[in-house]
C-alpha cells in the first residue's frame, strides 16, 4: 500500500544465499538445511538422501549403522557435561536413532597450541567415562595441533559403528498416517545450560544439560518387538526442527499438542527472559519416536521404565489430512501455530 507519495513499505524476505559460510549454517535451521542439501546433491548417495542420523549399511548378512559427528561447543565445560561427554553421547545417540546397538567409536582431536594438559586430561577422562556408561569402546583416533588462536582450545570429531539386529526400516520414509509421536522427556535444558554459562547468567535453579546416551531405551523398544517407524534425537534446532525435517521427508502432516510438551519451569523462565522458544532449543539426551497408534501405550510404558526416558509422553500424531510436510501446534489457548525451520539459529555452537 502506498503512502500517497509513491513510497511502498515492504518487509524484505531473509537472504537465502550467502557468498560466505555463516555461523547460522551450523545452527539447525533453514540455512543449515540448504548447506546439507548442497552436500547431498554433490555426493549423490542414496543413504544421504534418506536424511537420517546415520547410514544403514548391509555387508553380506550383517547390517551396520555408521555415523560421524564433530563437536565445537563453547564453553568446554558446562553443568551436566563437557565437550568429551558430548562427543561420545552425540555419536552413540545417532547410532541408536538408526535402531542400532552402538559398539565402537573413533575420536579425532584438533588441539590449539597453549591448551592446558589438565583441561585435555579432564576431557579425555570424561570421554572414557561416557563410553563406559554407553557400553562402547573408543578404538582408534587421530590428533592434530594448530597454531595458537586457530583452534579455540579443542575440537573433537567422532565416528561410530553399531550393529542393526532387526530388519525394520527405521527412518522418515517409514512414518505412516496415524502414527503416534512420543517424546522421551522435557526439552530445552542443554541449550539453556550452555547459554547460562556462556553469558554468565545465574538463575535461582541451576539448569543442567540433559546430555546422556540414549541407546538403552531405544534397544528396549526394539527388543520388545515394538514396531518403531522413526527415531530422531533433538539436537541443533530442537524439537521443532527435527519434526519439520521428518514431516518434509515423509511428505506427511504432524500435529502437536503444546500442553503435552514438557518444559521445566526454570527452562521456560530462562527462555522467556532471553526471548527464546524452547521448541527450538537444543537437547543432547532427548529423542522422538514414531510408532503405530496401537503400539503407543506399550511403547510409553517401556520408555518410562528407563531412567533417561522416565518422563516420556505422547505429544502428537501423524496425519494425511493436513498439508503435506507441515508441522502444526495446537497452543495452550486453542489456536493453531505452524512450526517452521528458523532461517538461522537461536544459539550458536551448542554441540
Descriptive terms for the model:
single chain, seven-stranded mixed beta sheet, alpha+beta, 351 residues, five-stranded mixed beta sheet, 9 helices, globular
How many strands, which pairing sense, and closed or not: the largest β-sheet? 7 strands, mixed
Runs in which pLDDT lies below 50 for 5 or more consecutive residues are 7-13
Total count of helical runs of at least 4 residues: 9
* Assembly state: single chain
Shape: globular
Number of strands: 14
Task: Calculate Rg over CA atoms.
Answer: 21 Å
What is the helix content? Answer: 25-40%
The strand line-up of the biggest sheet is 9-11-8-12-10-13-14
In round numbers, the mean pLDDT is: 91
The secondary-structure class comes to: alpha+beta
Distance between the termini: 45 Å
The fraction of residues assigned to DSSP E strands is: 15-25%
Order of helices and strands: HHEEEEHEHEEEHHEHEHEHEEE
Topology readout:
Layout: H1 30-43, H2 46-49, E1 55-59, E2 62-71, E3 77-78, E4 81-82, H3 83-97, E5 101-112, H4 117-134, E6 137-146, E7 154-163, E8 180-183, H5 189-199, H6 215-223, E9 230-233, H7 238-250, E10 253-257, H8 265-274, E11 287-291, H9 296-304, E12 313-319, E13 327-330, E14 336-339
Helix pairs in contact: 3-4
